[in-house]
Amino acid sequence: MPKIQAAIAGGNRFVLTSRRHIYEAAKPKLGSRNHPLFRDGQALVDVGALTVDERRQILYNHIKAGNQSSTWKSRVKPQLETLSREPSLLPEIARRLADKAYTRHISTAYDVLLQFIQEPKEHLLQTIQELSRLHRAALTLVFLHRGHMPVGAATPDMLDLVMRHFAVDAESLGQAILQLRDSFLVQTVMGASHFWVFKHPTIADAIGAMLGETEGMGERYLRGSKSEAILAEAVCAGADKILDAVVIPETLDELLVERLAELPDEQWVNRRLFTFLNERASDRAFKLFISVHPTILSRKAVLSWRLSYDPKVLV
């Protein structure tokens, strides 16, 4: 840093780029040697804080330079102005939107394109997988608290679970959480309490997918995922295989039953629960669920037009 300051005094200019969490981790180590404009924040530029005009230019340039067909471009052109006003539009998402490798399975309808921008699960999953083990551990800890972790008051069992699996210590974990502030995590106030929450709700979905794909992480997945997400993403070992589903081993059947019992008694939710019990639950998990919660079968669910398709009848 002293050499950089000497070069600046000689008329040179520098632009240093970094992921926010990496800079936050390095900042305390620079200490008093840091440049004064870094210490008071004057030299920091958040390139994610884009104006509508900047998002408009970024989106247009990526679409223009992308490998989408001319037909595809003509279809989305009328929608670009509205899409550019979406605050969650990131430069990387704009690049992926312009690459047919990422949009092969989506249509050009406005609501579909908006969802692609608002819920960039694949992009976030890749980004999270590139984080250090310590930062992944920090995100997992918040995830296990269902995305609302009290500041400075993590549940001891959850903390111990993460520390053992990721082989990290509590002090380093606390520092990692602070380093992720404003990039992946934000603090929010609920009543008189402060909580760590994910900056974007899709981050939780991406972490759930990461844990589901990682050997031995089934317990963390079940504890942190929303019950509704489990219905769509998980399958019991011993049931018919489902492509890309998170496989729940027999040893976690009790925890699975506990999480499914949290589902609200709503007709559409009940229909999905009956579908899960019919198609994705193993015989063991099914028997356990019904023995512990026999009144579940009395719930009302949205009906199918044919009895042979009705999930509740099939259950």
Task: Describe the protein's architecture and organization.
The chain has 315 residues and is mostly helical. It folds into 4 domains: 2-39, no CATH class; 52-118; 125-202, Orthogonal Bundle (Arc Repressor Mutant, subunit A), CATH 1.10.10; 231-314, no CATH class. The chain is 53% helix and 6% strand. The protein contains 19 helices and 5 strands. A 3-stranded antiparallel sheet has the order 1-3-2. Strand 2 (185-190) and strand 3 form a beta hairpin. It is globular and about 80 Å long. It starts with a helix and ends with a helix. The mean pLDDT is 85.
Strand and helix layout:
Layout: H1 2-9, H2 20-30, H3 36-39, H4 52-65, H5 70-76, H6 80-83, H7 91-97, H8 110-118, H9 121-129, H10 133-144, E1 149-150, H11 156-166, H12 170-179, E2 185-190, E3 193-198, H13 201-213, H14 218-224, H15 227-233, E4 234-236, E5 246-248, H16 253-260, H17 267-279, H18 283-292, H19 311-314
Parallel strand pairs: 4-5
Antiparallel strand pairs: 1-3, 2-3
Helix pairs in contact: 2-12, 4-7, 9-13, 10-11, 10-12, 10-14, 13-14, 16-18
